[in-house]
Design goal:
Low-confidence stretches: none
Strand content: 25-35%
Radius of gyration: 16 Å
CATH class: Alpha Beta
Oligomer: single chain
Number of strands: 14
Strand order of the largest sheet: 1-2-3-4-5-6
Number of domains: 1
CATH superfamily: Ribonuclease Z/Hydroxyacylglutathione hydrolase-like
Helix content: 10-25%
Largest sheet: 6 strands, mixed
Distance between the termini: 38 Å
Shape: globular
Bound molecules: zinc ion
Structural class: alpha/beta
CATH architecture: 4-Layer Sandwich
Length: 212
């Protein structure tokens, strides 16, 4: 599997293009649809699906354009509400509302599914906390961690449907995965699961209480 990473939009957000045998999945196309499409064209990759780690506006801004270009769009059922409701998608953040919202996904998942694209398997791991429908996508050797796990941190839990208790459980779930993975987060630098187990205090939070 070949992975391209694009930094898109004003946050900015990491958008990943994961391809094999000429077919590509785009994870979290937050903005800049034209750039994403021209990247796919340059590589000669056929757009197959869009996978959303969650429904916040900064991860979904280019979804409608990619869907028009032929992508099947998938999101966790619990985060579908963000796609239908711009107020929720902005999750209380005071930012200008874009017209790209109101997205109709082609399929939803609940966690535990394996999504197939040719020979690639994306395992959907439910990791609520940043939002109720936040998920990570696991491929061999790689985790697309969305806004659940960041390099040295984790996503905020104070927005609509977020939960610090669930976030802690989700980080524990990730820490307990066997072996090491490349971790590709929704914002910031890439990291590895082993590095985070050793250096990210939030991942080994068993014996500590945090004031959140
Ligand atoms: Zn988010």
């Amino acid at each position: 599997m070949e992975i391209l990473s694009l930094s898109v939009g004003m946050m900015p957000t990491n958008c990943y293009l994961a391809a094999q045998d000429g077919r590509a999945a785009v994870i979290d196309p937050g903005a800049e649809a034209e750039r994403i499409l021209s990247c796919l064209a340059q590589k000669g990759w056929q757009l197959d699906m869009v996978l959303l780690t969650h429904g916040h506006f900064d991860h979904v801004g280019a979804v409608n354009a990619l869907q028009k270009a032929g992508a099947r769009v998938g999101v966790a059922a619990a985060d579908e509400i963000f796609l239908r409701d711009p107020e929720r998608a902005y999750a209380g953040l005071r930012l200008p509302v874009g017209e790209e919202l109101h997205i109709r996904p082609d399929f939803v998942f609940h966690g535990g599914e394996t999504l197939k694209m040719g020979d690639i398997r994306f395992q959907v791991l439910s990791t609520p906390g940043h939002s109720a429908g936040s998920v990570c996508f696991l491929c061999p050797g790689v985790i697309f961690s969305g806004d659940t796990l960041f390099c040295g941190g984790c996503g905020r839990t104070d927005l609509f449907s977020g939960s610090w208790t669930e976030m802690r459980a989700s980080l524990k779930k990730l820490a307990a995965l066997p072996g090491d993975y490349r971790v590709l987060p929704g914002h910031g630098e890439e990291t590895t699961l082993e590095y985070e187990r050793k250096n990210n205090q939030l991942m080994g939070a068993d014996d500590h209480d945090f004031d959140y």
